[in-house]
Amino acid sequence: MLAVYGRPVTWKMLVLTAALLLVLMSASAAGIVWWVWHNMAAQVVLHEQQALVRLPETLAVEAAVNQRVQVSVDTVLPVTVPVDQTLTLPITQALPVRVSIDTAVPIAVDVPVRQSIRVDQVVEVDGQVATRVMGIPMTVPVKGRIPVKADVPIDVVIPVRHTVPVVLNTEATVRLREPLRAHVQAEIQTQVPIRESLSVPVMAPVQATLTFPQRRVQAGLDLMDVTVPFSDVSFAPRDGTAAAAWWARHVARPPVSSAGPASAPTPEPGGPSGPRP
């Protein structure tokens, strides 16, 4: 009988110890396998392989256009032009206008009169004349008719100060020396015909959607480095009838329409000579 530290060791104790060690080793191995399965990946390098590529139904892309786009424009564009400015209009021709005047004009003028007036008439005299006779002053009564014939010269200046009313209604011709200034505030409605071929640069990226009429295409892989997580690895028969049935059931199944945004094409193994997992 075996003894450890003075204690006897029986077969029952040995079996229980071996079973405990086996459980601990199994748990450790399971934990390591679980960690490796979820955190590690298998890396496969493929050389000159054929692949069946499945394309999405539509693919949203953003493209940058480096060349100018030629656009032919043939249209009539309605245009509203607001005008709010002061215009200077030079007028060189005479303008016929109707003049109506009703006013009073003051006149201040001196009129010189140089004339000789002929006098031919009979003057009746009835009065008294003071005279001297032999040095003696006396008053002599005079009564009679005296004929007068003479030329009387007149040289006087007659001042005229008067206000003359003026009423006038007539046509006249007017010439403007200064240009006419007019303030214009309006909106002009017009139509501009545009017939031109324009070269337009595309500055912003263009959003486009690609549609693939053939969803599955054959592609050749020159070199491809595939990293496959262990959690995505599945097992299948390698050759024979069972392998063909398995590939027909899993690879050749109809694609599932994607409701979300389109993803990039993903190569699928399983072409004529494609690799098997």
Structure description:
- By secondary structure, the chain is mainly β.
- The protein has 3 domains: 1-39; 41-59 and 210-277, no CATH class; 94-174, no CATH class.
- The chain contains 2 helices and 11 strands; from the N terminus they run ββαββββββββαβ.
- The protein has helices spanning 11-39, 241-250; strands at residues 2-4, 7-9, 41-54, 58-63, 69-89, 95-133, 136-174, 180-200, 206-211, 216-229, 266-268.
- It has a 3-stranded antiparallel beta sheet. Strands 1-2 form a two-stranded antiparallel ribbon.
- A hairpin with a 2-residue loop joins β1 and β2.
- The longest helix is centred in the first third of the chain and has 29 residues, at 11-39.
- The chain is rod-shaped.
- Mean pLDDT is 76; it is low at 252-277.
What are the low-pLDDT stretches, counting only 5+ consecutive residues below 50? 252-277
Structural class comes to mainly beta
Oligomer: single chain
Please summarize the sheet with the most strands.
3 strands, antiparallel
Q: What coarse outline follows from CA principal-axis ratios? A: rod-shaped
The termini sit apart by 55 Å
Question: Which secondary structure elements does this structure contain, and how are they paired or packed?
Answer:
Blueprint: E1 2-4, E2 7-9, H1 11-39, E3 41-54, E4 58-63, E5 69-89, E6 95-133, E7 136-174, E8 180-200, E9 206-211, E10 216-229, H2 241-250, E11 266-268
Antiparallel strand pairs: 1-2, 3-10, 3-11, 4-9, 5-8, 6-7
